[in-house]
Structure formats: structure tokens, C-alpha cells
Write a structure and sequence with these properties.
The chain is an alpha+beta fold. It contains four helices and ten strands. Strands 1, 2, 3, 4, 5, 6, 7, 8, 9 and 10 form a ten-stranded mixed sheet that branches. Strand 7 and strand 8 form a beta hairpin. The protein starts with 8 loop residues before the first helix and ends with a helix. The relative contact order is 0.27. The N terminus is likely disordered.
Amino acid sequence: MPGRFPMSLALWLAWAPVAGCGTAKSTCVEFAKAVGFEPLEAVGDEVAWPAPPPDLATRALNVFSYPTLSHAVAHGRGIVRAPLAKVYAAMKLPRTSRIHSPGDLWTPTLDVEPEFPVSFQIHYVVHNVVTVEWDLLYRAGPLEGTSDAPLVAGLRYQKTCGSEHIAEQSGSLVASPLPGDPTATRLELVGWLNASGQDYTVVAGTLEDMYGNLVASLTSMP
């Protein structure tokens, strides 16, 4: 499944006339350790569960996005034809969570917060009229059960430093077994975005990227 840059190429081009040449200014935001890898917020009833897919290749994801006064929001519910243990193993891989940006320049660093079961940072770079760089910090682990035998797994990420054009970029994923069917896993996804010139609908691309990345990772795993 092809990914989409969640801030859209049109948004990126909109930065250029006002930013000038060089590198965009950088800001940093604390990612409180107390929130761990808990979900960013609950997925609302406005998003229905899709029908369970017959196989891993069949897409099963519903996404709903809307604006708030401070940021854009996307909620998603999906199902993949893979057991939770395998999904959790895929969640540990940076390639499963990365967003798809113009130029596709991203550099992962593993185990940046050893106090969490899973942690990594991804540094993104987009070269255009200006160079835009930013870091997303990711954490994951069992919300129920243990790392060796998770019953519910969670992942959370947040922009920590980088371009001032991205004031907020954060999200979460919760994975749990499909009731009555241990060969499939349910996914609840949340994305927040506040970026210069954004359209609230583009944050849905973040969730679509993550779902597509997850399927790709699962497909390549033994």
C-alpha cells in the first residue's frame, strides 16, 4: 500500500514562500515519561470496525478526521489477519511506524529510552527550498500482559524537536486480539497534527501510512 506524507506535498510547498532559503527554525517539546505508551485518546464511536479481512493482503481500515481549535485529529479502526504476538513483534520495528515524506529520508535510532520495553527515535529530513528536519520519539510495550506474552499492546509517538512549522505531531496505536478469532488483531489508531497551512483531512494519511507499514512488515516476517 503506498503511503502519503501526512502533511501533504501541497502543505510543504506552501511553506517555501514564507520561510526563505536555508533551514527552518527548530523547537523542542517535552514527551513526558509519565504517559508512557498509553493511547493518546480513545477512538470515538464515529469510526466503525471494518469486517475482518480474509487474508493479510486485504485492507480493512476505517478512518475519520476532523479539526479542533488547536490541532487536526484522525481516528481509525482496522483489522489485520495476523495474531497479536506477530503484530507486537512488527510494532518494534521503526519501519512499521515511520511516516512517508518527500524524498523518504529517515534515520532510526534504537533503544533511546531503555526504561521502556520498546523505544526508538526517527529523524526525518525534507529538502526543498528550505530544509525541514524533525524528530519523532516512539515508545511501545504491553498495556496488558507481559512483553513475552502481551494481551494488549500499545505504541505512542510524539514530535520532540524540529521544524517550528510542525507545532504538534503525535499519535498512538492499540493492538488487541479480535474477539473469538486469535488469528486476527484489531487496531485502534489516533493521530494529532498542527502544522503550518494544514488541512485537517491530511492527518488521516498518518494512520494510513502506519496501517500500510504494519501490513508490509507482517508480510515480510517469517
